Amino acid sequence: MSAFQDVEDYLSAVRITSKQAAAAQAVAQRSGELAASQARGFAAGTASRMDVLDTKLTEAQDRKTSPDYSGQALQDAVLLVKALGGGWQGQIAPIAPAEARQAVGGQMDSMK
């Protein structure tokens, strides 16, 4: 009975953390757009240097947070596979970060 509960818990966790990861990525992108807008405003004389620095700090924080959510979504996906009785055999070859994000994005899209 606990095996079914584990699967249900991890299915829920994967769904929630996938949504959180997507939202965090969108926030990071919007922060980047706002920082660029503030920089243009500073160049035009309509924004202060403090506004520009503040938005750049927020952008950096948002970009740092986004991978944390993506990593948690991956961990939950692995725990789901484990709860389902799956596993890996042999060695997994390391992949570049861009390839990992692309692979995870496709897997997470198919889970929705």
Give the key terms.
disordered C terminus; 112 residues; mainly alpha; 3 helices
Report on this structure.
This protein has 112 residues and is an all-alpha fold. The chain has one domain (2-111). 83% of the residues lie in helices and 0% in strands. It is built from three helices and no strands. α1 (2-44) runs antiparallel to α2. The protein is elongated. The relative contact order is 0.16.
Give the secondary structure arrangement, pairings included.
Elements: H1 2-44, H2 49-83, H3 97-111
Average pLDDT reading: 83
Number of strands: 0
Q: Major β-sheet, in short? A: none
Uncertain segments are 107-112
First-residue to last-residue Cα separation: 25 Å
Strand content: under 5%
Protein structure class: mainly alpha
Please, how many helices? 3
- Into how many domains do the coordinates divide? 1
Shape: elongated
Output the radius of gyration: 19 Å
The amount of helix comes to over 70%
The SSE order reads HHH
Write a concise synopsis of the structure shown.
With 112 residues, the chain is an all-alpha fold. The chain has helices at residues 2-44, 49-83, 97-111.
